[in-house]
Design a protein that fits this description.
The protein is α+β, with helices and mostly antiparallel strands and 86 residues long. Helices cover 17% and strands 20% of the residues. The chain is built from one helix and three strands, in the order ββαβ. The chain has one helix at residues 46-60; strands spanning 5-10, 18-25, 63-65. A three-stranded mixed β-sheet has the order 1-2-3, with helices on one face. β1 (5-10) and β2 form a beta hairpin. The radius of gyration is 13 Å and the shape is globular. The termini are far apart.
Length: 86
């Protein structure tokens, strides 16, 4: 995980029925207010942020959307199921 990036939970597009994690570089931390954050909590660890967002989604009956990194696509969660048909 990059120490130049932090993570937080948002309601994507202002949709309060969904929750997603977003990454943001500290250099542009002032942009945090551009998103509808679920709360004021920030995380330095991607997995902790994802765990937190999934727990909130479950607790409040929200749809969890997989994390999609803005900076490193290899950090993104799969957005589809991998089916093994063997």
């Amino acid at each position: 995980m990059s120490t130049d990036t932090f993570y937080f939970a948002i309601h994507p597009s202002g949709d309060r029925s969904t929750i997603q994690v977003i990454d943001l570089a500290y250099a542009v931390a002032y942009e945090r207010s551009d998103w509808m954050a679920v709360n004021g909590e920030d995380f330095t660890d991607r997995d902790e942020a994802i765990f937190h967002a999934k727990a909130l989604a479950k607790k409040y009956g929200l749809q969890y959307l997989p994390f999609s990194s803005r900076y490193d696509k290899e950090l993104s969660e799969p957005s589809h199921l991998n089916l093994n048909l063997d």
